[in-house]
Design a protein that fits this description.
Elements (H helix, E strand, L loop, with lengths): L10 E14 L2 E12 L2 E6 L4 E8 L5 E3 L19 E3 L5 E2 L3 E4 L2 E4 L8 E2 L12 E6 L5 E8 L10 E11 L2 E10 L4 E2 L3 E3 L1 E2 L13 E4 L1 E5 L12 E2 L11 E2 L13 E6 L9 E7 L5 E7 L3 E5 L7 E2 L5 E2 L5 E6 L14 E2 L5 E11 L6
Antiparallel strand pairs: 1-2, 2-3, 3-4, 4-5, 6-16, 7-10, 8-9, 11-12, 12-13, 13-14, 14-30, 15-29, 17-28, 18-21, 18-23, 19-20, 19-22, 22-25, 23-24, 24-30, 25-28, 26-27
Length: 367
């Protein structure tokens, strides 16, 4: 094992840090943790829910820290209700009444948040073992996980093949590419990455001093159950306006429910790779900066207001506002709002969702 790697052009790739056997139907599957690494930038991922377990990188002084909320033990993820780091689907976010109609057929889904469905139901993609489809070593290491979602799973129509690729594509840059292909029926697909970020370090306290910029001029307002009303409104003169870098805590108590849990309609200005800038987060304490780029039309900004007394890494207890989520996605409840961008994917079509997480520091030093 290579130690004391501090030069960005050096790299290291390792696999299988821990494993647990699970029974999934009649098939015995094994949940493991894997690692991809380049210099002092490392990312650990488990095939349980294709979940990001840790992201370790330096601050402006070169001190390393894990900037992802989560658990020390893999087994703690099995009954996790926070969706720490998970790939969520078949349809991320909320579906009103856990039901929708498609091509004249009415589908009843499995509700897991009152009468509504959240993040694919009680056994969504975040709560199953994925297969390791491929691994790539070398300068730009990568892991691809795959999962077959069967017809009727959580009430959704049709068989769907899904894969997610995590790859380090440059110095302090993590690419995430999600793909899905229905085999035999049209079905909604909306995958999202649900990592809780704290750029000061996972045990550094709240993210209220973090400065956030969201590249969006409008949002989809929600009702008391956080279901979109179907409207699309301007962020102007609201506490949801992050068009200029603003401290998370500056207006948070003016937001509905006393925190942010809202879908933003991203201003699409794609670069040559088809990616548009979605958000920038700056932690003044550590100097770390996260830039997020995506192909998705929406971004769910969640400031972890529902976290309470969750024992995490190193015994640290996570409380409200200890992390923030930047979930690029299709709009919530799109299956019940024809004016929203469609999430329906037909057999023969391929759903594709790309994200790029680029880290740097704010003192001019480039990661």
């Amino acid at each position: 094992m290579v130690k004391n790697i501090g030069v960005p052009m050096l790299f290291f790739f390792s696999l299988v840090l821990a494993s647990f056997s699970l029974c999934n139907g009649t098939t015995k599957n094994v949940a493991r943790i894997y690692e991809i690494k380049r210099g002092d930038f490392s990312v650990r991922i488990t095939n349980w829910g294709a979940t990001v377990v840790s992201v370790i990188l330096p601050d402006s002084k070169g001190e390393l820290a894990d900037v992802v909320l989560g658990f020390d033990e893999l087994s703690s993820y099995f009954n996790d209700t926070t969706y720490f780091g998970a790939t969520v689907g078949r349809v991320a976010n909320r579906i009103k009444g856990a039901q929708f109609t498609l091509n004249g057929t009415h589908y009843k889904l499995v509700p897991n948040e009152g009468n509504n469905m959240l993040h694919g139901g009680h056994r969504g993609f975040s709560r199953v073992v994925w297969s390791l489809k491929s691994k790539r070593e070398g300068e730009y290491p990568a892991l691809t996980f795959s999962y077959h979602s069967f017809d009727g799973e959580q009430g959704f129509p049709g068989d769907v093949d899904v894969d997610v690729t995590y790859q380090i594509v440059g110095d302090y840059m993590l690419s995430v590419v999600m793909r899905a292909q229905p085999r035999n029926k049209a079905t909604p697909v909306n995958l999202a990455q649900h990592t809780y970020w704290n750029l000061g370090g996972q045990n550094s306290g709240t993210i209220l001093s973090n400065r956030v910029k969201i590249y969006s001029s409008s949002y989809t307002p929600v009702d008391a159950e956080l279901i979109p009303t179907g409207q699309i409104l301007s962020v102007s003169n609201t506490p949801y306006d992050f068009r200029h870098s603003t401290a998370v805590g500056e207006r948070i108590h003016e937001a509905q429910g006393g925190g942010y849990d809202l879908n933003y309609v991203l201003d699409s200005h794609p670069n040559k790779h088809g990616l548009s800038r979605a958000a920038t987060v700056h932690d003044p304490r550590s100097g770390r900066v996260l830039e997020l780029w995506t192909t998705a039309p929406g971004l769910q900004f969640y400031t972890s207001g529902k976290l309470k007394d969750v024992v995490g890494k190193g015994g640290y207890v996570y409380e409200p506002y200890d992390g923030l989520c930047l979930e690029t996605q299709g709009f919530p409840d799109s299956v019940n709002h024809p004016n929203f961008p469609s999430q329906i994917v037909e057999p023969g079509q391929v759903y594709k969702h790309k994200m790029l997480f680029r880290f740097r520091v704010s003192n001019g030093r480039s990661y």
